[in-house]
Amino acid sequence: MTAKNRLDIAEQFLASRELSILRSQDNPWQNELKPPRKYLSDMLIQGNYRTEAFSLKLNRFQDPDKGFLCVVMASTGPQTGEIHFQNQPDYTEKISRIITAQGGIMAWLTPSVLIIALPRPCPPTPVAQMASAIKKQIETTLDVTISMGASQFPWMDFSHQEIFHHGVKALDHARFYKPGALIFPNAITFNISGDRRYRLGLIEAALTEYHLGLLLNPTDFNLLNSLGVCNSVLNRFDQALDQFKEALEIMPGDVMALYNAGLVCNLMDDLDKGGDYLSRASELNNSLFEIELTAGIIFTKANNFSKALDHLQRAGNISPEAGLPQGLMGDICLKQKDYPRAVRAYTKAIKCTPRDPWSMSGLARVYEIQNINMDIALSLAQQSIALAPEISLFRHRLGKIHLKKGSYEKAAIEFTQADKHFSFQKGVA
């Protein structure tokens, strides 16, 4: 790994740290529940003739002023698991009779997922009662278990098609639970839908889902944190930080939101605020490698070496196999002329990352300053140049070793080469 300086390597680490999309304990996947193997709502993202056809059918189904219930259901048998009912004519016929008797319409989205729209009776029955009744009727008739997502029209300002889509997302939500769940869209539904789009790289679409969730629960911590993550990915750092702050007003002790805020402050070059957020995260949980190393990097950039060393030491203790925290500690100790500690840190860094030219060169410099282990220093300095010949600092250090060893011509060559590389780098910059 080569870079113009060690902090460039550290910045590469920070750039690779995706802000956390992790959730608090309130969401279903934090309760030992697994996401579905497939998300039905992917059909809405990719486009599908079946969803488009049902949307057109739904638009002609009811007068705009009349309401309806939309349910999306997936069925499992008592022993066979997921059932492809579309391939079971007798089952399809029984379901069709039930739906037709209530004046509804239906369509298959997949061989095992059915979409149904039922008109609201007059006087209207509560939609939750309607959904439960149709679910129980089909389950009893076919001897199956149904997971169901349901939504109603009218609801807020959503169109017929949007109501249908929300029912699909609600079924994805229901599939986080054991078969048999019935879910109407809520804040968690849109959180799940947003996360799915985020993981597919559809960041703007994810933002839309999170905003929909906030319409239902404006103080939902998870949704605010997720908005901040999306806006940071889109380089909207001011918005992202505002959302992390708002989330932290709700849950001041959330480590991941503090970590996210610290990363965004680093991207905004506000090292003081970034260090403060990461210090707070560390105080709450100092056993997370990413938090300790990130704090160490930011405090190093801010020249607050005392705090940087504390966090880097913890990062090194958490992950003894990681070379970066040890290398950074070596650089700091070299600047502070704490040579014994610098030797220990550089030695550990090289052991972790044998092809780390910065630690090799740093250790060579420490030996040269103390005028000890000069042959080892010479070998280390030469290896660092072999790995990163474009770094002028490495050649300057090798030149100084040659001077102390009395090899003046070799020293002159290295100094000349170092000046050439420095001038080239400066010109490029």
Account of the 3D structure:
By secondary structure, this protein is an alpha+beta fold. The protein has a domain of 158 residues: Reverse transcriptase/Diguanylate cyclase domain (Alpha-Beta Plaits), CATH 3.30.70.270. The protein has 20 helices and 6 strands. Strands 1, 2, 3, 4, 5 and 6 form a 6-stranded mixed beta sheet that branches. Helix 15 packs parallel to helix 17, helix 17 packs parallel to helix 19 and helix 18 runs antiparallel to helix 19. The chain starts with 5 loop residues before the first helix and ends with a helix. The C terminus is likely disordered.
In N-to-C order, the SSE pattern is HHHEEHEEHEHEHHHHHHHHHHHHHH
- CATH fold label of one domain: Alpha-Beta Plaits
So what's the oligomer here?
A: single chain
Give the C-alpha Rg. 31 Å
Helix amount = 55-70%
For the record, what CATH class of one domain applies? Alpha Beta
Mean pLDDT: 89
CATH architecture of one domain: 2-Layer Sandwich
Alpha-beta classification: alpha+beta
Low-confidence parts: 21-26, 423-429
Total E-strand runs: 6
N/C terminus separation: 20 Å
| Largest sheet, strands/sense/barrel | 6 strands, mixed
CATH superfamily of one domain: Reverse transcriptase/Diguanylate cyclase domain
Q: How many helix segments?
A: 20
Beta-strand residue fraction: 5-15%
Name the overall outline.
Answer: elongated
